[in-house]
Amino acid sequence: MDDNRLRFGVGVLVIAAIGIGIILTFLFGAVPRVLTGEYQLLVEFPAADGINSNSPVLLRGVEIGRVIDKELRENGVLLTIGIDSKYRKNLTHEYIPKIKTKSIITGDSKLEFVKGDEDELQAIHEGRLDTIRTQTYTDDQFISYGSPASDPFSLVLNLEDEMRKTLEAVQSASGSLQSVGDNVNQLVQNADGVVQNAEGQIGDVAQDARNALIEFQGAMRDIRNVIGNPELRDSLAEAFRELPVVLNEAQNTLQSTQKTFESFERVGQRFENVGVAAEKTVQNVDQTIDSVREAIESAQGTIENLEKITDPIAANSDQLVVQVLKSLANLDRTLVQVEAFGAGLNNSNGTIRRLLDDEDIYWQLRRTIENVEMATAKIRPILDDVRVFSDKIARDPRQLGVKGALDKRGSGLGLK
């Protein structure tokens, strides 16, 4: 009976331990989330220090997913992250993935989507920023612009070499102080020897020793003040806090300088284009000068031809003037006749004027023309018959009653 109870208790303990282990596994994210839907993103970073599987993914301080896989690539590290589907609408292309320090003690890091400023977004998305700004990340989308964010803790960790040099300097100073102490001890020993050898000089030696000790104490106080001064410590802390801002300003200054150099380069290209255009303009001017020169030569040839034509005219100018005067007189007479003809034409009693103005004459003329057309139509069959009759007579003239004359026989009827 006791064995059965013991076995039952052990079984219950084992089942409870397995259940607790499964619950803890789900709570701490050691297995994929099966109860919540998620979609994956592929993010590439230059380095992923402190990022492991199941590292949290944050958005504005809220955990929205986790790191699923970490893969080493040739030029960086590829992280596969899972994002809860309920945060899909909140995660747009305005947010940039960055790695930040989660704990300076354990060295763990976190992946957080941070809203980028306009310059950073413009550098990443270029001309697509306006259309892609409010679009969400899609499933299995590759993001190539992941970057580690500037963190004051990482800056402090990067000052390890400087702190080591400072400690080495302090150690060297302490060695110098130890040497000074040895010299003081040697001085005391020498003072003892002097006291033994010359009791008259003991007061001076004691005074020198006292002065040396006072200077040593002053030096120690100065060193203590330098090392333990709270204002100096606060200044160092303030300098460390302002160091990221200074670095960001330096980065912005370098970017502005780069943009300025690019502007100078574009200006140089424009000046080069202006030089090319000026060269083309000079060539066009040369061509224009050649064309003008050819036009001048052609004009000179034309003038020479005109001179050849005008020379005979100048030689016969008297005859030409007489002929021109005669032509003008004839033209004058012709114009007088034309004027008389026009006057007769415009005369209301004239025939042409009456034809133009009198409607009765117009209709009479029209009826006459119609009668002529009708007579012509009636005469045409008669002319056709005459043509046929004349053709027949031409073929056989005896049809006109001259058959006997043509045959030299009588014109009587019957047979002989």
TrEMBL record:
Family matches, as InterPro entries: Mce/MlaD, MlaD_Phospholipid_Transporter
Domain Mce/MlaD, residue spans: 38-115
Family annotation (Pfam families): MlaD
Transmembrane segments: 12-31
Tagged with keyword ATP-binding: no
Sorted UniProt keywords: Coiled coil, Membrane, Transmembrane, Transmembrane helix
Superkingdom of origin organism: Bacteria
Coiled-coil portions: 247-309
This protein's name: Mce related protein
Naturally occurring in which organism (per UniProt): Stieleria maiorica
